[in-house]
Specification:
The protein is an alpha/beta fold. The protein is 34% helix and 22% strand. The chain has 6 helices and 8 strands. It has an 8-stranded mixed beta sheet, sandwiched between helices. Helix 3 packs across helix 4. The longest helix is centred in the C-terminal third of the chain and has 19 residues. 40% of the residues are buried.
């Protein structure tokens, strides 16, 4: 049986940030490897919460910070409500998201439940971009970026900026996952990211699922593609276990 989700509140320079926490249903002795789970653009919604518990059931303690906390606590949006999200989403800056990541990471490092040398970041969509921000700036053990766009070219009207020129500071292995039918992330961008990480000698792998579009791992989206989602999950869990163990 899954344990109920719990919440903690951490302090940032722009106010309190709620973090959703998920733990394995079966108690485990000792400190656990941890995952910082980073949301899509739709908030820490039911999909992200299910994903957090699924990660916990795989043996991790999971922390999902609310990246929209500057606009209010507990914000969730439907997948047809992007016009409501856009002002919140587009205003977020690199510096703001990096502060949220640093605050969350600092809490995990000091937690008696967490093994501080086995902290990974795993994000989806907006969170996939933020995962790479974490990889460029924090001493994390592994980074898993699922369909994170905006890494190569600026996006009009979006405050956060590309990270390609920061890849030299990445100090952990990286797994990047994309859908081959994702019209928001051109294949040229994926190739550029791959080439840059290769040029820099970074430990990385790129997986492209040819039949999948953007958001293909989310059961609540029209773009959900079960075969690709199941394959990507298995691939990611096996990769993560290998890197953290």
């Amino acid at each position: 049986m899954n344990l109920p989700e719990t919440k903690i509140t951490l302090s940032t320079s722009e106010g309190p940030m709620v973090v959703h926490c998920f733990a394995p249903a079966t108690p485990v002795s000792g400190r656990l490897p941890a995952i910082i789970l980073l949301q899509e653009a739709f908030g820490v919604n039911p999909h992200i919460k299910r994903t957090g518990q699924r990660m916990a059931d795989a043996g991790y303690i999971v922390f999902a910070p609310e990246l929209f906390h500057r606009s209010g606590a507990g914000l969730e949006f439907g997948y047809d409500e992007f016009p409501k999200i856009k002002p919140i989403f587009s205003a977020l800056t690199n510096a703001q998201m990096l502060e949220d990541l640093r605050v969350t990471f600092a809490h995990l490092e000091k937690s008696s439940e967490v093994d501080p040398v086995r902290i990974a970041v795993w994000g989806f969509c907006l969170g996939g971009w933020a995962t790479m921000l974490a990889a460029c700036n924090l001493p994390i053990a592994a980074a898993l970026s699922f369909y994170g766009g905006g890494l190569v070219n600026p996006r009009p009207g979006i405050a956060f900026t590309p990270l390609l020129d920061q890849f030299g500071s990445i100090g952990c292995p990286v797994l990047l996952v994309y859908g081959g039918q994702d019209h928001g992330i051109p294949i040229e961008d994926i190739r550029t990211v791959d080439a840059k990480l290769t040029e820099l000698g970074k430990d990385h792998e790129v997986e492209i699922y040819p039949d999948a579009g953007h958001g293909f791992c989310c059961e609540d989206r029209a773009s959900y593609h079960r075969p690709s989602a199941e394959a990507a999950w298995t691939r990611a869990i096996n990769w993560l276990k290998a890197k953290l163990n």
